[in-house]
Amino acid sequence: MSSTEKSSQPILDLARDILLWRRKKMSVMVFFISTATWVLMEVYQFNFITIVCWVGMAVVTSLFIWGNMCRLLGKEPPSLSGLEITEQSTTEMTILFRESIEEAVRWMFRVGAESEWYVFAGVVTGLWILSIVGSCMDLLTLAYIGIMMSMTIPVIYIKYEDKIKRYGQRAKVHWRKLVEIVDEKVFMNVKNKLFKQKEKENEKKGWRRRRRETRGGMGGGGGCSRSCDGELLRAVLRAKDRVVRFKPMLQELQSTLESIIPKISTKLTD
């Protein structure tokens, strides 16, 4: 939203006019009240309740004197109808508060889940710097500095908007170059190292898998050898059974040949 664009909500219009010094009386009043509160509580070390009571006594005393003076002079007493808070103003303040909380939640989600890493790093760095600044001062001083900055920086920005935009564009270009350099030299190296490490792990896993397969193949060859030995043993046993079965026949043939051979030899000699 630009500095010249007006909102339809009266509260936002009023706040914008005060911060941009369009309503000088109210801006001076906010500046004076915030400065006086900070001086009384930080410099003179007054408590907040004490200051509130003193302000209340001053307001009540002023109204008392004013009312009595009006009655003595025969004038009408001051009307308090303009001090009423309308229902519309209360509803608008509630809606503004709810929208602010929702926008803050959406912003945190965009930074944490959707933005680039350098946006996340910038936000975290800014919050870290703010935490360091907050540890060096109390909440009242930090709020006073915030009010003073919000009442001076927008005015300076509107007055020197063109120059600030030019310097902002240059800073953005240099920042993007720096981000690209960091991304190329740091993150790419980390990615390459992780990729090489993953390749080495895959090679180790493949080598272990091949080694297990080789051992399994050797185990299968041993099983084949054992099966062949079993077949050979069974063939030997079958041959042995056949030899045992034909042994009586061979013995009978041997005895017959032993009885016949002498007779044949005697006949041949005669």
Oligomer: single chain
Taking the sheet with the most strands, its summary is: none
What count of helical segments does DSSP give? 7
Mean pLDDT: 76
Portion in beta strands: under 5%
The N- to C-terminal Cα distance equals 149 Å
For this entry, give a set of tags.
270 residues; mainly alpha; disordered N terminus; 0% strand; single chain
Task: Please give a structural write-up.
- By secondary structure, this protein is mainly α.
- The chain is built from 7 helices and no strands.
- Helix 2 (24-43) runs antiparallel to helix 6 (139-159).
- The longest helix has 109 residues, at 161-269.
- Residues 1-8 and 218-224 have low confidence and may be disordered.
What's the helix and strand layout?
Elements: H1 10-19, H2 24-43, H3 48-72, H4 87-114, H5 117-136, H6 139-159, H7 161-269
Helix pairs in contact: 2-6
Condensed summary:
The protein is mainly alpha-helical.
